[in-house]
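Quick entry, no commentary yet.
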Amino acid sequence: MSFVFTPPSIVGLPIVGSDQLFPVRRVYCVGRNYAAHAREMGFDPDREPPFFFCKPNDDASIVPVAEGATSTIPYPPLTSNFHYEAELVVAIGKGGRDIPAGQAASHIHGYAVGLDMTRRDLQMKMREAGRPWEIGKAFDFSAPIAPLRTLADVGEIHAGAISLEVDGEVRQKSDIAHLIWSVDEVIANLSTLFALQPGDLIFTGTPEGVGAVRPGQTLTVRIDRLPALRVRID
């Protein structure tokens, strides 16, 4: 049997110190996982169960960025309020369902710096109408990601500075320790909803300071122990 057209290729993320690529299966994102960001979005940051949304896993949405490089992404259509959200990305290396938080680290292959780019005006319009967020979150070039570093290389990440600069000016600055739901707790909760599989990525949430970016500006995202991510908006 053959396909009626050539199926899309699997997206592979570079891994620091390896000539192998990490094949992406699914992309999960945690919403409002820093208290200060929840407040700036107009929500009470009480520790309610985390909620999730997804981004496409294809090469139109995911933008692998080589270490030390600056990738260019286009300003998307139908928005005038294009936002950055700096995030720690967790790469799953071993699958499972109903994973206890105390065993979550054994399912992690590695970590990376990512951007959850957002058409904020479209997201808010859908939210106010009680409709899904996809047009605000799941569009082309919405998920730039720097190279992965493996768990074996950097150890578990429970804390560490996270920051984002726009043309050298710091706009987001926090610490991974300020996650409302820790990485282990996110994995445990997500695995009650989906059977996690090797290749899954989890964007763990963004700190306060999200804002709009314009064409010609460059975003630089840093998290301790991980390769920085640099993206220019075209």
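second:
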Amino acid sequence: MTSLLLDPAAAPFIAAAVGLCVGSFLNVVIHRLPKMLEQGWQDECAGFRGETPPERPRYNIMVPRSGCPACGHGITALENIPVLSWLALRGKCSACGTAISARYPLVEILGGALAACAVWRFGPSWEALAACGLLWALLALTFIDFDTQLLPDDITLPLLWAGLGVNLFGVFVPLRDAVIGAMAGYLALWVVYWLFKLIRGKEGMGYGDFKLLAALGAWLGWQMLPLIVLMSSVVGAVIGITLVVFKGRDHNIPLAFGPYLAIAGAIALFFGRTLMRTFFPS
């Protein structure tokens, strides 16, 4: 089994299978974590008002068991096989026939594809395992931010510390570059935030964006920050213009910036050094 895991030809396929299962778990995180945070905020507000928080059924990442939001049908093990179950059910609940969003298999496929790409890029190594962790966290943050315009501290802060921990051993960059990257990543967007607020009188981004860029700096080093900011701005502009032109989206409605940072961070992980030589030749 060990030789199979270390086989460069087989490892990406094994990583893809694991990534599909992780993607299934990420669907739960994407759906439940914002609701858990909202309940926590409501309870805190009730406490500030001197009220007793309302009694609620236990609700977290593990409880209750996943079910159909329309009829409450509990998802069985056979109905929870990544991608295949959705295809077998033809994208519908087996009990009531309500449509199941195609985003669920999409997240699973992305989880598997990113893991396979990480192992293909870095080989069957600790570096690839760390890269998978980073990519899966970015995947969860992307969809949470799209849905809620929130980048939860529950993910961004552990991701930042994980980047520093990984680079304590110089996995991606030396620790010094990682520490400077975390500091510079946070301060760069913090400065942009306050300049925009002073000039326009309103907020242009959230504090979660600062923390996400700090986390990317901790993982990839301060040298990658200009490239990440440049690519995220380009990706955001392209997607934003596309939504306005083809979807009729009101340009005054704010767009989440976190997904573009996450996409840029993933690109920098795989192709950063090549792109740095192209766009920022020394």
